[in-house]
Design goal:
The structure is a homotetramer. Chain A has about 200 residues and is an all-alpha fold. Chain A is built from nine helices and no strands. The structure holds a DNA duplex (21 and 21 nucleotides).
DNA sequence: AATGAATGAGAGTTCATTCAT
DNA sequence: TATGAATGAACTCTCATTCAT
């Protein structure tokens, strides 16, 4: 039993890993189930044994990736011993997200998808809530720098601004790496972080 | 002859107008030619009499819209009598772009498309060059605030950052208008503009 | 009026000439009205002003060409003063038909078309009858070598055999001119003619 | 695996069988994939699982049928014990081909197709070479009557003439069975065979 | 669990034909 | 008479999904 479950889980993970690449490369609509299965080393059948539809996989990918990113953030936080360090860790977190081009493209893809499938937004929102709940339950919230915990509204807005710039810049970078390098993206994100959360200057 | 040309041009414009809405609403892949034609008040045949493929229409839309936006910018610039005013006009231009949700979504769509169709990037780059050349020849360049004309690289980078934030924020706004309102987008863009070009503070 | 009619007639002839080439080149199904019109120096409209459908043009072409060929044969016959010469002229007629590749391909096309459109066979048969009647009325029949006039059945069969070999060989020649040259086709047809109508040897 | 392959092969054969009928009935251009699939008892999808395009199927059919006919010829030859018998068998082969109307129409269709798709002629020629090579390797060549083996050029030409008459006559027969019956076609082919290979009289 | 043959809805595209000019 | 914009039916081909194995 356990062996079976393990195998199933392994297949699922391989499919998710493949899906991440194909969805980022081709976009939701153009991505073909067959390509995803093939990239994972399977055929279509394996896909349908583990996911019910393309959409289902897309959501599963969103949930898995979001969770992973939040867990990584929690890990960074937990390794800190004071607020100063935590703020620094948060800054590092954003700056290093720039190293993962695929994820930013996928986030854009997810949001565009949500935008265009109003009926699924409930499902999506629920997925998000689930992720957040899970995270909160596991205590990530209290680990965040105190300063970010109080004025809820403002904090959320700042996070959105940072997120928007991150994804926007990553797209520009992916679109034309010569116009803006990965290092520049990281540097600019760091500056914006400082401006938003530490009131330092953005871009020299 | 002229009558025919006029009619053709009118049809083309109606199709482009419809395409803008459908492409923004559904994305390039999910957009159906039939929907575009229908929205313009025609059938598919009319579409194929004016454009050769969906891609062709997509490019034509990009070119038309880009040109329109640049013309609008030029208009704003020409109405200015000194540098101070021009900088202000430029700021206004960016801030008000936020009023046009569709265009930002389309820009994301265009860039994602380019990203995913390496072979067409040459075609796209050429289209951009054509637009820019046209604009420059008509003297937009010299109208820009002097300060933006010198350090070419840096200027381009700043524009990209602004563009990235604009599109990123617009997506967030479209995705969840309660999380970030249109006014907030405009305000934030203004702040970033000041920070980038006037060294003022970003976000209070 | 007469001027108008002349012009109309000229247009029709140009279209028929173009149709002959396009139908032979592409076949009935693949032939495009637009290509025919363009080859004649017109646009689709001119076509529809002169013919009602593609089929209509196809039949008109068949009738025109058949008539022309029969008229040519009649001309050859009329230039003869005795039976001996007429037989010779008939032989020449068949042998030289091999010079016109297009017509043989078209004949195959016509027959295949008739084969596949049982409902139109009546129409086609009628067209044929019309042509023959016209020819007979104009006295071609009595010009044929006497020997070919008597045993009606046998004569018709021989003509069909000759026709079949002509078209079959022309197709082989068009298909692979190196396997069988135009001259060879002509020579072989001559031999068969002699065998059928003069009892000479076929192929050395 | 084997089960799957068997099933696939069976489907392919059923599709080829159906294709033969539909292509002969409607011609390449007018033939609809859907009709072929339906006649084979499938839907379009099954077709595309086994052949990539209509053209692909057309070529596969050509290859299969050509091979079958050559194998039949080889069988006839192998059953002979002396040259006399072989010549007789060859004669029988040609004469009986007339019993298969569809195949002659298809051959015309194939040649017309090749004629009109110059770019595919290489592919077609290759298919033919493949078939011939296969046959030769299996020793058909040496089984042919000795008299047909020497003057290569002349032999090939005679075969082409026979082929041309066969296909031409079959078309005439299909076009108007009253004008020339199947028996007459067979008889005439036999006569031509004798004339070409045995120097007997053609047609009484 | 995984395969892959088969389905079938649906898309892009072509083109004979119509119609206002 | 001839143009060419527009129609709409029909076709090829793709692909998410189902199902027997």
């Amino acid at each position: 039993m356990n062996k079976h479950q393990q195998k199933t889980e392994a297949t699922k993970q391989r499919l998710l890993r493949a899906a991440r690449q194909i969805f980022a490369r081709d976009g939701f609509d153009a991505a073909r189930i067959e390509d995803i299965a093939a990239k994972a080393g399977f055929t279509r059948g394996a896909f349908y044994a583990n996911f019910s539809t393309k959409e289902d996989l897309f959501f599963a990918l969103l949930e898995q990736q979001s969770t992973q990113h939040m867990e990584r953030l929690r890990g960074l936080m937990e390794a800190c011993s004071n607020e100063q360090e935590r703020l620094e860790a948060l800054r590092t977190y954003y700056a290093t997200r720039a190293a993962d081009k695929q994820w930013s493209i996928l986030v854009l893809e997810f949001k565009l998808f949500a935008l265009r499938h109003a009926k699924l937004r409930a499902k999506l929102a629920e997925a998000h809530r689930r992720i957040r709940t899970k995270m909160k339950l596991e205590g990530i919230q209290c680990l965040l720098p105190a300063q970010l915990q109080r004025p809820q509204k403002s904090k959320e807005l700042r996070k959105i601004v940072l997120e928007a710039l991150l994804n926007g810049l990553m797209l520009e970078h992916a679109y034309d790496p010569k116009a803006i390098t990965g290092d520049q993206v990281t540097a600019i994100l760091g500056k914006l972080f400082d401006t938003l959360f530490r009131r330092l200057d953005l871009i020299p």
